[in-house]
From TrEMBL:
Residues 589-603 have a biased composition (Polar residues). The lineage of its organism: Eukaryota, Viridiplantae, Streptophyta, Embryophyta, Tracheophyta. Residues 580-603 are annotated as: Disordered. This is DNA 3'-5' helicase. GO terms for molecular function: 3'-5' DNA helicase activity; ATP binding; DNA binding; four-way junction helicase activity; hydrolase activity. Its main location: nucleus. It catalyses: Couples ATP hydrolysis with the unwinding of duplex DNA by translocating in the 3'-5' direction. Residues 53-228 form the Helicase ATP-binding domain. It comes from Vigna mungo. GO terms for biological process: cellular response to cold; DNA replication; double-strand break repair via homologous recombination. Its EC number is 5.6.2.4. Belongs to the helicase family. RecQ subfamily. The chain holds residues 396 to 1012 of 1189 of the full protein. The keyword DNA-binding applies. Residues 253-414 form the Helicase C-terminal domain.
Length: 617
């Protein structure tokens, strides 16, 4: 069920295990160490920082995959300081750039930026400085638009290059190059021009989110040659992951969760829509939490104010869209809650990554129900979803292929659904496999909901159930939603079922021996596998989108041609059944439909408590 990315042959060299790059004998080693301490105030290097710096200063093209907060900036700011000439940095957001410049100027490192919305005279001033014999800047930041659209800038870069003053080109947030990434920026694709114009200038590409296919895209689009790749584990051992069924009582659940686990601590609640942000915030305020909302339609001053209040601990909780979080460096964020389904696993990983920067234990709780999937899908198709600011400038007219982007988005979302529906596999494994990283679930040490509740698995062949579900979709005319199909399959006599005379359909009740969660996991697996397709039905009532299931005839033949479907289920329920009838079996464990709040300090998982009980009896 997990997504295994394709590993493609490419022209890059693994740098991570290579001793050469960790050597302390480079001619610049001493100077690096001195400046790292004196100028940047760091006592040592973090993992891979020394290696990356040595590789880029040796003149190689370098690709760095390092988690958010890992310290990517130092890997170019320190070389910029000690190298002759100027370092060009391409960064997707003016606000990110301004943060960096402010930081550099505080350290007394001369730096400047150019952006399209800057005063003309101010731009001229900076360009003149670039032309001068002795250019004072060590770093020049620009947005990708500037590089792609301004011939004037390119001329100045050429001029610097001729005078051997263009030390290095840095592409920050390099995943924006790729359509497979979650923050695609068309202008990033034009950055290949830099390598064409300056083939001998080393390029350093940095990102915190890249699957194998994104990395491939970036290397190709930028035209990197024999590039050295540094990557490190994306696992964040101090983050505790769980997915909790989202019910009508979701807000009460969130309030309770915070109260019991993180009262008066700092956190972020990610919401899908602006309306949700405001609703969740006001609800939690009523419950006595110090909280505020943050989204894209607020004016910049308002947003900055809220962010500042939060940074200074004047408020604890921010209810925000994904517009919030970029460049945020608050170390003591103790929880990240997702009130709705994130758009992709990469996005989810990055949003969760804002918790626990200080290495202390923090919670990541995702409230999930299947109808949110329909909602997100609809919003994506309408272009109504708020983007992370990195993906702004996302403009339909200059998109390479809008159709394929929609497809990619839908696929990314589907993987997220599959992640949520999976109540068996380790959450870390499910996330990391997405980054092309192998992970041994036993090293999770029960810090995710699935590892916590499951001790044993059984594998079940569910092919026959799958065939019945497909058959049922056909029998009922391919015009009902998945929840309706499940009702019929499990033998409900609800008004809706009766009204459509489904109680007379031959497969009515064929799945009554199955738990609701079990049947729905199989059905959703069929959607993930593209055997059943979910068609969004438009509705003018905002927020209430419905969908109908159809059969994909192209794929369904596999199912009837002997292709088996095997899913893993926890075997804890089985283990309990032979016990005494007065011991309540742990119903929740086979189904994903039962609230099982994973408090971060729950002493024992429910199922284990029950097992102990039955052992005693
Ligand atoms: P990234 O770009 O990878 O998300 P940043 O470059 O913004 O991360 O760095 C995150 C934080 O880590 C910054 O506050 C930075 O000062 C700090 N940092 C970076 N390198 C070191 C180091 N070697 N020692 C201590 N702190 C560091
Ligand atoms: Mg960064
Ligand atoms: Zn786990």
């Amino acid at each position: 069920e997990a997504f295994i990315p394709k590993i493609i042959e490419v022209n890059y060299i693994e740098g991570s295990g290579d001793k050469r790059w960790s050597s302390h004998d480079f001619p610049w080693t001493k100077e690096l160490e001195v400046n790292n301490k004196k100028v940047f105030g760091n006592h040592s290097f973090r993992p891979n920082q020394r290696e990356v710096i040595n590789a880029t200063m040796s003149g190689c093209d370098v690709f760095v995959l390092m988690p958010t907060g890992g310290g990517k900036s130092l890997t170019y700011q320190l070389p910029a300081l000690v190298c002759h000439g100027i370092t060009l940095v391409i960064s997707p957001l003016v606000s990110l750039i301004q943060d960096q410049i402010m930081h550099l100027l505080q350290l007394n490192i001369p730096a400047a930026y150019l952006s399209a919305n800057m005063e003309w005279t101010e731009q001229q001033e900076i360009l003149r400085e670039l032309n001068s014999d002795y250019c004072k800047y060590k770093l020049l930041y620009v947005t990708p638009e500037k590089v792609v659209k301004s011939d004037n800038l390119l001329r100045h870069l050429e001029n610097l290059h001729v005078r051997e003053l263009l030390a290095r080109i840095v592409i920050d947030e390099a995943h924006c190059v790729s359509q497979w990434g979650h923050d695609f920026r068309p202008d990033y694709q034009g950055l290949g021009i830099l390598k064409q114009k300056f083939p001998n200038t080393p390029v350093l590409a940095l990102t915190a989110t890249a699957t194998a296919s994104v990395k491939e895209d970036v290397v190709q689009a930028l035209g990197l040659v024999n590039c050295v790749v540094f990557r490190q584990s994306f696992n964040r051992p101090n983050l505790w992951y769980s997915v909790v069924p989202k019910t009508k009582k979701c807000l009460e659940d969130i309030d309770k969760f915070i109260r019991e686990n993180h009262f008066d601590e700092c956190g972020i609640i990610y919401c899908l829509s602006r309306m949700d942000c405001e609703k969740v915030a006001s609800n939690l305020q009523e419950c006595g939490h110090k909280c505020a909302f943050y989204h894209g339609t607020m004016d910049p001053a308002q947003r900055a104010f809220v962010q500042k209040q939060w940074s200074k601990d004047e408020i604890n909780i921010i209810c925000a869209t994904v517009a919030f979080g970029m460049g945020i460096n608050k170390p003591d964020v103790r929880f990240v809650i997702h009130h709705s389904l994130p758009k992709s696993i990469e996005g989810y990983h990055q949003e969760c990554g804002r918790a626990g920067r200080d290495g202390q234990r923090s919670s990541c709780v995702l409230y999930y129900n299947y109808s949110d999937y329909i909602r997100v899908k609809h919003m994506i198709s309408q272009g109504a979803i708020e983007q992370s600011p990195m993906a702004s400038g996302y403009n339909r007219s200059n998109m390479i292929n809008p159709g394929s982007i929609l497809e990619t988005n839908t696929e990314n979302l589907m993987r997220m659904v599959s992640y949520c529906e999976n109540d068996v596999d380790c959450r870390r494994l499910l996330q990391l496999v997405h980054f092309g990283e192998k992970f041994n679930s036993s090293t999770c040490h029960k810090t995710c909901d699935n590892c916590l509740k499951i001790t044993n698995f059984i594998e079940k062949d569910v092919t026959d159930i799958a065939k019945q579900l497909v058959e049922l979709v056909k029998l009922t005319g391919q015009r009902f939603s998945s929840s309706h199909i499940l009702e019929v399959y499990r033998g409900s006599f609800s008004q809706m079922v009766k009204k459509n005379r489904h109680e007379t359909v031959s497969l009515h009740g064929a799945g009554k021996h199955l738990g609701k969660g079990e049947a729905s996991r199989i059905l959703h697996h069929l959607v993930v596998e593209d055997i059943l397709v979910e068609e969004v039905k438009k509705s003018d009532y905002y927020g209430s989108v419905s969908s109908i299931l159809k059969v994909n005839e192209l794929k369904v033949c596999n199912l009837f041609a002997g292709h088996r479907i095997i899913l893993r289920f926890p075997s804890t329920v089985k283990a309990l059944k032979p016990g005494k009838s007065d011991v309540t079996p742990a119903k929740g464990s086979l189904t994903s439909g039962k609230p099982n709040v994973i408090p971060t300090n729950a002493p024992q998982p429910q199922t284990e408590v029950d097992l102990n009980l039955s052992a005693k009896l």
